[in-house]
Every structure is written in structure tokens, then in C-alpha cells.
Write a structure and sequence with these properties.
This protein is mostly helical. It has 5 helices and no strands. The longest helix has 19 residues, at 34-52. It is elongated.
């Protein structure tokens, strides 16, 4: 509307855009809230930290640096949202993919001849009774 206000009247532009004139003027003359001012300040700090670290910090580390260097105590989620709004890619440590064993190649030889068959079903309960080890003198584990 501002760009076209030189060619057309504001009332015509608002009518074409289906916006009330009062809403347009309220938007033009509004003041920034405390939260917006605080977010601007935090964005500058985030950008400074991000540039100093050669673009290697994620939201968690930036949150720690903000607390340490600038005494700004905010959540990781807020830092992540501000970084996303600034189009800063977040460095993340992704776990390497797990590779599944191919058909029998990675199986080890059973040297101890142990039995690995599953005899119980997944819905069965196991009950183990522990018996105390009693000796005459009450000394356990000594010969």
C-alpha cells in the first residue's frame, strides 16, 4: 500500500485489498512490543555467536553461550525458533546409520557350545527364588 499510495489513494487501495482503513493506519503507526525488541537484541547476539563459531553451533550450544557471555537466560526452543526465522541452518549431530548383518556373514562361531534357543514366550513370567548360601561358620566365600 505504501508503494502504491503515490499513484492511488489509500482508501481505494484498502478497498481493493479488502482491508479496513483503520486497520491499515493502526498497523503503520504501531509501536514494537517489549518482546519484539528483546527478540531483535537476541537475534543480534545469536548472529554474533554464530559468526564467531564459523557457523558450527546449534541451538543448544548457542543457548549456553548466551547464558555465559550475554547473561541471557532463554530456552533452547526459543533460540531454535529465532534461528529458523533468520534462516540459519542448525548444525546437528546425526547418529550414523546402523547396518544390518547380511545373510549369515557376520555371525560368530559358537566355540563354547552354548544353546541360544528361546524356550519361553514373550508373555510368560519368570520367577527366580534366591536361596541364601549358609556355611557352618557363617563365613561366605572363604576357603
Amino acid at each position: 500500500v505504501r508503494l502504491l499510495s503515490n499513484e492511488h489513494s489509500v482508501s481505494v487501495l484498502c478497498r481493493v485489498l479488502n482491508v479496513n482503513r483503520s486497520t491499515y493506519y493502526k498497523f503503520i503507526n504501531r509501536k514494537e512490543s517489549k518482546r519484539e525488541l528483546e527478540n531483535k537484541r537476541i537475534r543480534r547476539c545469536i548472529l554474533d555467536l554464530y559468526a564467531k563459531s564459523d557457523k558450527r553451533l546449534g541451538a543448544e550450544k548457542i543457548t549456553l553461550c548466551l547464558k555465559r557471555d550475554y547473561r541471557i537466560n532463554i530456552s533452547v526452543g526459543r533460540v531454535r525458533r529465532l534461528m529458523k526465522g533468520m534462516n540459519l541452518p542448525e548444525m546437528s549431530t546425526v547418529k550414523p546409520p546402523k547396518f544390518k548383518a547380511k545373510s549369515g556373514e557376520d555371525k560368530c562361531e559358537n566355540i563354547l557350545c552354548q544353546r541360544f534357543e528361546q524356550t519361553a514366550r514373550h508373555y510368560q513370567k519368570f520367577c527366580v527364588k534366591a536361596k541364601p548360601n549358609r556355611q557352618k561358620d557363617g563365613l561366605q566365600g572363604q576357603a
